[in-house]
Design a protein that fits this description.
- The structure is a single chain.
- The protein has 329 residues and is an alpha/beta fold.
- It folds into two domains: 6-183, NAD(P)-binding Rossmann-like Domain (Rossmann fold, 3-Layer(aba) Sandwich), CATH 3.40.50; 201-322, no CATH class.
- The chain is built from 16 helices and nine strands.
- It has a nine-stranded mixed beta sheet.
- α3 links the parallel β5 (77-80) and β6.
- The longest helix is centred in the middle third of the chain and has 16 residues, at 185-200.
- The structure holds NADP nicotinamide-adenine-dinucleotide phosphate (NAP).
- The site of NADP nicotinamide-adenine-dinucleotide phosphate has 25 residues, from α1 and β7.
- Residues 25-31, 49-50, 53-55, 69, 81-84, 86, 90, 108-109, 130-131, 134-135 line the site of NADP nicotinamide-adenine-dinucleotide phosphate.
Length: 329
């Protein structure tokens, strides 16, 4: 399989966006970082927010110009930094057939474009810039000069300048120092959704609860079970990031290593692989996309009900009681 191209600072020309009117829609995790980083490197940027938005005060305190959502239609470049389930409605209400000139729309995740949730008009070129981390990381790494890497994609029918503009924006927000990885909307959408569902969010939370609950069911006190599981996750996760899964295992005790290798044989069998295939198909077939659209229309009722069950789990109670740091929401 050919390696994907990785662009560096020398591949980018910020001049391509200098003087263009850039509107960042939303001032949450990514919106704040995009807006501040673009502002700090001299770009003409403002944030579009709802009239009564709770984010308004923060944007003003940061010295960022704020406009109405309707004014986004006047921009040359529109960066959609609002939750994914809000994209279609926002596009239909505020952008579709509203502009007199060709505009670039930047998505920070690929799903809505890949699953055809938006009926674009011909005034819009579409780009994906997906930073590899939350907005706080993007901002901190911009300020430190290290930069945070990102994915970049353009749609097959986008104009030639779309990629140059994508590279210029990614560079201006600090991604080129760490690498701008070329991809497709499809690969970003599926990789992001499957990765978070099977491992980073669903897999990790589910496995943590299952193991904690088993220890407590078999007689350990909740605090003891917490210290043997939740309290040590961060250390092992950072070892995996630094050394890789096998590298982490090579660095733990021989007891932990040999026992864990045996446990992996029991856990990750054919049955497990079939379950992973089901999750993959749920994502790749578009079934999850339909589920999400439905949930968004219904105020996320089912999602809230399922989260409530997890909030009542003894592992969550233990984390709230014995956890020492951090925001646990
Ligand atoms: N967070 C991450 O780690 C991360 C990483 C990579 C990519 N992404 C992608 O980045 C995008 C933004 O995610 P995020 O986590 O930064 O979002 P977020 O923090 O949840 O965004 C909240 C902001 O969006 C505004 N907003 C919400 N609905 C709106 C609407 N209908 N119209 C106008 N403004 C609206 C909110 O304004 P109010 O104050 O009015 O509610 C608030 O300013 C998504 O596509 C996401 O997939 C996120």
């Amino acid at each position: 399989m050919p390696e994907s191209r990785v662009y560096q600072t020398s591949d980018c020309d910020r001049g391509k966006i200098k003087g263009k009117r850039i509107t960042v829609v939303g001032y949450g995790s990514q919106g704040r970082a995009f807006a501040l980083n673009l502002r700090d490197c001299g770009m003409d940027v403002r944030v579009a927010l709802r009239d009564s938005s709770p984010s308004l005060a923060e944007a003003k305190a940061d010295g960022i110009e704020v406009s109405s959502l309707a004014q986004a239609a006047d921009a040359d470049i529109i960066i959609l930094a609002i939750p994914d389930h809000e994209h279609t409605l926002f596009y239909d209400d505020c952008l579709k057939e509203k502009s007199s000139h060709k505009q670039i729309i930047v998505f920070l995740s690929g799903a809505n474009v890949y699953y055809d949730n938006i009926d674009f008009d011909s005034r819009h070129d579409v780009i994906l810039i997906a930073p590899h981390g939350p907005g706080s990381d993007l901002r901190e790494k911009y300020l430190s000069g290290a930069g945070l890497s990102c994915f970049l994609a353009i749609t097959p029918n986008a104009s030639e300048k779309a990629k140059e503009i994508g590279l210029a924006i990614a560079d201006a927000i600090g991604c080129s120092q760490a690498g701008i990885y070329e991809t497709t909307f499809r690969d970003e959408a599926i990789g992001d959704l499957f990765g978070e569902q099977a491992l980073l969010v669903g897999g990790l939370a589910g496995m943590t609860m299952a193991v904690f609950d088993k220890l407590v069911d078999r007689g350990l006190k909740p605090e003891h079970a917490y210290l043997e599981t939740v309290a040590q996750l961060k250390l092992l996760a950072s070892m995996i990031e630094k050394y890789g899964p096998a590298g982490m295992m090579a660095r733990v005790s021989k007891t932990a290593l040999s026992g864990s290798l045996m446990a992996m044989l029991l856990l990750f069998n054919e049955d497990f692989d079939q379950r992973l295939d089901k999750i993959y198909e749920f994502v790749a077939s578009g079934e999850f996309n339909k589920f999400l659209q439905n949930e968004a229309c219904n105020g996320f009722v089912k999602t809230r009900e399922m989260l409530k069950l997890l909030q009542d789990d003894p592992c969550q109670q233990a984390a709230e009681t014995f956890g020492r740091t951090g925001d646990r929401t």
